[in-house]
Amino acid sequence: xxxxxxETAFSDGLLDLPTGGRILVMRCSPEFAxxxxxxxxxxxxxxxxxxxxxERTGANMLxxxxxxxxxxxxxxxxxxxxxxxxxxxxxxxxxxxxxMVVDGQKTDGIEPLLKALKSQISNIEVLSxxxxxxxxxxxxxxxxxxxxxxxxxxxxxPDAWVTALGMFSAEAVDIGSVLLSENLPNLKGxxxxxxxxxxxxxxxxxxxxxxxxxxxxxxxxAALEAAKHNIKDPRAAFHWAxxxxxxxxxxxxxxxxxxxxxxxxxxxxxxxxxxxxRAKYLLKPNxxxxxxxxxxxxxxxxxxxxxxxxxxxxxxxxxxVIHATRPRQSH
Length: 331
Description:
Elements (H helix, E strand, L loop, with lengths): L2 H9 L11 E4 L14 E4 L3 H9 L3 E3 L6 E7 L4 H14 E12 L4 H9 L6 E5 L2 E7 L6 H8 L22 H7 L7 E6 L5 H7 L4 E8 L2 H10 L5 E5 L11 E6 L4 E2 L2 E2 L1 H14 E12 L5 H7 E9 L3 E9 L4
Parallel strand pairs: 1-2, 1-4, 2-3, 4-5, 8-9, 8-11, 9-10, 11-14
Antiparallel strand pairs: 5-7, 6-7, 12-13, 14-16, 15-16
Helix pairs in contact: 3-5, 6-7
């Protein structure tokens, strides 16, 4: 959530904290935590770094919301169906007459969401600022059936796989992951799938009989829960964690990754570069990183600075698979 919008809403009188009752916060940045009474706040957030940051504020952390809230605040994520699901979940958690707050950027779809809400709920107040909107309205006594359907929506998962709303590649196997699965090194020993998602690459890794242990590391809790359904091999262990801080130095023989490179809709190559730097930290002296990336992403400098040997194994119009071996020691 853009802090300027919620601060403006409080300062202009569009938004007032309820005098009593609990406040539900869903999928929001902790940057505005100081505006809320921590002892009355319940936070639901599936992204491990944000969860940890909210936990440090003293808020009560939940896996799923309860009911009877006086206020609910939701940040609109990029995925349309996931955004609608969160709004519906927040509305069902509110007591009738409770205040619903929805924030989002234009680039993340707040305007189509506003239009859809207006078709079902009246008297929505809108604050437009900083290329986004903050919506404030009161939960009606009876929620429209359309909104209940939003809460019950599910992705059209790929055949034989479990996925969930909002996660990367929820409705189709990612082309890059397929390419990497076809160009993995001869895996053995201890392997880390860094940013494992719902487990497509992990299953391919476990097809290698000499793999003794596989750690699936994923920051999105829903994706990791899906991976637990998709991967039943006893060699697999599941870690809901921030890739930037996960693991002990020189822990793995191989790291496999299809690293993210977007923050919202904005391309952010530094996010992928962080994965490569972390892989270097996690690998044993003779370890190998196997990654796939969009062809245009500028990862080669990071790799050649960090590894003694870097090879492009596969190249298509859209993607590249690179193996980087023997991480250089940091000075």
